[in-house]
Design goal:
Elements: H1 4-9, H2 16-63, H3 68-87, H4 93-98, H5 103-132, H6 148-174, H7 176-181, H8 197-213, H9 220-223, H10 226-247, H11 252-280, E1 283-288, E2 291-293, E3 297-305, E4 312-317, H12 318-322, E5 333-337, E6 342-346, E7 352-358, E8 372-373, E9 379-382, H13 390-393, H14 396-399
Parallel strand pairs: 2-9
Antiparallel strand pairs: 1-3, 3-6, 4-5, 4-7, 7-8, 7-9
Helix pairs in contact: 6-10, 6-11, 8-10
Length: 401
């Protein structure tokens, strides 16, 4: 079957059936378009009817005619249902705006809001002004920072710089001995060695009085004397330098110097303290012998570090003891004193025993307290019959025992 366009192109006759087919196809196309239009129109009408129904429900009570009797009944119903509505009423807006949450929650969020809210306000205001003037450099946070982290980093660095400068000023002017001890053993400095502000002021002024007020002739020779340099000129120079540092606490070079000094100080003295603790720690390196027989009295030589003469060494069973339980739950047996680098002990059961060391006890009430056990070292207790050839070397009557 040829279409009308192809028939005309080939100069062929168009039959009636071809015309009918073209009309049928055109009719179906029109029906498809109508169905599509009806579907769109139907969805639009449903949305419009839904909106009209909601508006009609709201205005239904206003348009409905109500007699006087009916109005009285409805008023009575409203009065009767008023307590129920009051019970279901939500909290007043003032209460929800002014109070809420628990104690810790309020404390935490209040501190966060007090610290962050000013910066957020500044950033929003600065951002609005920059939108009006786009040619301006975009710094949305205080202290010429591009983010909140940068602002907080600069603020905390400022606090650290001020704290370091103030502490250095105090130690240098008021407690020179404590200041010098910071560079040798910083963690040994106690709070009792720190002086109060009144004592610091008195010690600072006493140097000037002894240097200037105590001398009758005020000259350069007096100022350059060792006593004056030590008691007056040195504190004045320190105070001048620290004042200049406080005035420049926001400079990059001072912050870099403080951070480098602080990190070096903490690293150096941290390593020093760890090394001191390691050297002062009690250690046991080896035991000789490493095995023993049951009911045999032996002398165990202990090779260790920081072991004291007269200290106490006990033995904790490994199998059924330290292998299953914690150290403080395992009984300490066969306690004896360290004498000439070792201890005498007699084991009466087959097991492996771990040495436990403690300093000389003060009282007898803490028998199981204060021990330090070394689980990597063990003394293995054997039976004499486990020795190869024991039956050949032992008489028959001894073997039957």
């Amino acid at each position: 079957m040829l279409t009308r366009a192809r028939a005309r192109a080939t100069n062929q006759h168009i039959f009636v059936d071809d015309k009918w087919n073209d009309a049928y196809i055109q009719t179906k196309d029109e029906q498809i378009d109508m169905l599509q239009a009806q579907r769109v129109l139907k969805s639009w009408e449903e949305d419009h009817e839904h909106a009209e129904d909601s508006d009609a429900d709201d205005s239904e009570d206003d348009d409905r005619w109500i007699s006087e009797d009916d109005s009285d009944d409805e008023e009575d119903d409203d009065v009767a249902s008023q307590p129920t509505k009051q019970k279901q009423r939500h909290p007043v807006p003032a209460a929800t705006w002014l109070a809420g949450g628990g104690f810790l929650e309020n404390v935490g969020w209040t501190m966060m809001a007090a610290g962050i809210a000013p910066m957020l306000t500044y950033a929003l205001a600065n951002q609005c002004s920059q939108r009006r003037r786009p040619a301006r450099r975009r710094t949305e946070w205080p202290l010429q920072s591009g983010s909140l982290f940068g602002t907080l980093m600069k603020a905390y660095t400022n606090l650290l710089t001020l704290a370091v400068v103030v502490c250095a000023t105090y130690y240098a002017m008021c407690s020179r001995d404590v200041f010098y001890s910071l560079f040798t053993r910083p963690f040994s400095v106690s709070l009792a060695s720190l002086q109060s502000a009144r004592v610091c002021q008195a010690s600072l002024l006493s140097g000037w009085h002894s240097c200037v007020g105590g001398s009758t002739s005020f000259s350069a020779q007096v100022l350059l004397s060792p006593d004056c340099l030590h008691h007056s000129v040195f504190p004045a120079a320190v105070l001048t330098v620290m004042t200049l540092l406080l005035a420049n606490f926001h400079r990059f070079w001072l912050k870099a110097l403080v951070l480098t000094t602080t990190l070096t100080f903490l690293l150096k003295h941290g390593i020093t303290e760890l090394e001191a603790e390691r050297r002062a720690a009690i250690e046991i390196f080896s035991l000789d012998p490493s095995f023993a027989f049951v009911n045999e009295r032996i002398f165990v030589v202990i090779d260790g570090q920081n072991l004291e003469q007269g200290a106490e060494v006990a033995w904790a069973p490994y199998w059924g003891g330290l292998q299953q339980h914690k150290v403080h739950l395992v009984p300490k047996l066969y306690a004896s004193r360290v004498h000439n680098g070792g201890v005498f002990v007699t084991f009466d059961q087959l097991n492996e025993f771990v040495p436990c060391y403690r300093r000389r006890p003060v009282s007898n009430s803490d028998d199981q307290i204060g021990y330090k056990c070394f689980e990597h070292l063990r003394v293995r207790v054997k039976d004499q019959r486990s020795v190869p050839g024991w039956s050949l070397l032992t008489p028959k009557e001894d073997r039957d025992l």
